[in-house]
């Protein structure tokens, strides 16, 4: 296994997946409800098969973990983490906010990450220790230090999965935090798809990302958190990971203490 081949492959896989989703965006879709607020389409299933086949062709000994799907050789030292369609509910309703998230890990550490937002032709990529990029151009987080002027990407509380922990307990608390952010920040936006929001922080478009959803899962965040960190951002847990679920915020570092005081108090 060479890092150059993995690098080339993850970019190729992500690009191909983005083109596949973009070309099927306005086609007929079969929609299946997989949980309370979670849907899967035939396009998810077809793209999963394509990506798994592509990985196995080039890296037959590598493990593959598919978000919401089956795993292959999960304990392998080298493994791929694939979320083929993050935002299936948007995709099913022709809302153009969804991503393909692919990460490559070795010995449990994320080495490469790619997040493709097909509708705007934005391919975010990072290599551990080698920076973050948008369509091949180096990106960095913003230097905004004033919350009153900051753009904050917020994911609102939701009940998406029946096995989601502490939904009722956390809902009012998280809505209170959202209310404070709306009052104190320069601008608060909420259009879901956390990986995309984190990448927009990495690119300096947003100054911070705060996840109040309670429905985010670790597997689908592996690529985007690497991209944020390689762009100079910081990832801070809001709650301890539990049963595969995560809740964290991402900052440009200049806003870290201000947001900790507001969100974690």
Give your account of this protein's structure.
- This protein is an alpha+beta fold.
- The chain folds into 2 domains: 3-139, Fructose-1,6-Bisphosphatase, Chain A, domain 1; 147-263, D-Maltodextrin-Binding Protein, domain 2, CATH 3.40.190.80.
- The chain has helices spanning 3-23, 42-58, 88-92, 167-184, 194-202, 222-230, 256-263, and strands spanning 31-33, 39-41, 63-66, 71-72, 78-86, 99-106, 109-117, 122-127, 132-134, 137-139, 151-155, 187-189, 208-211, 234-242, 245-251.
- The strands form 3 sheets. The protein has an 8-stranded mixed β-sheet with strand order 4-3-5-6-7-8-9-10, sandwiched between helices.
- The longest helix is centred in the N-terminal third of the chain and has 21 residues, at 3-23.
- The radius of gyration is 18 Å and the shape is globular.
């Amino acid at each position: 296994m060479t890092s150059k081949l993995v690098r080339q492959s993850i970019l190729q896989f992500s690009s191909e997946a983005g083109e596949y989703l973009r070309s099927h965006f306005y086609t007929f879709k079969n929609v299946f409800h997989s949980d309370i607020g979670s849907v899967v389409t035939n396009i998810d299933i077809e793209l999963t098969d394509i990506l798994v086949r592509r990985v196995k062709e080039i890296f037959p000994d590598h493990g593959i973990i598919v978000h919401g799907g089956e795993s292959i050789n999960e304990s392998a030292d080298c493994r791929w983490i694939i979320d083929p369609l993050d935002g299936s509910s948007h995709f099913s309703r022709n809302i153009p906010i969804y991503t393909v998230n692919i990460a490559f890990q070795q010995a449990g550490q994320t080495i490469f990450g790619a997040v493709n937002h097909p509708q705007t032709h934005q391919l975010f990529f990072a290599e551990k220790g080698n920076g973050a990029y948008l369509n091949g151009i180096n990106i960095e987080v913003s230097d905004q230090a004033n919350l009153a002027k900051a753009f904050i990407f917020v994911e609102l509380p939701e009940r998406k999965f029946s096995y989601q922990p502490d939904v009722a307990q956390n809902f009012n608390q998280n809505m209170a935090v959202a209310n404070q952010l709306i009052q104190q920040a320069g601008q608060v936006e909420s259009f879901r798809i956390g990986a995309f929001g984190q990448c927009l922080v990495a690119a300096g478009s947003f100054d911070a990302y705060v996840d109040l959803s309670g429905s985010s899962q670790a597997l689908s965040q592996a690529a985007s958190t690497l991209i944020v960190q390689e762009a100079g951002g910081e990832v801070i847990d809001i709650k301890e990971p539990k049963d595969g679920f995560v809740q964290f915020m991402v900052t440009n570092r200049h806003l870290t203490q201000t947001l900790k005081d507001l969100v974690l108090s």
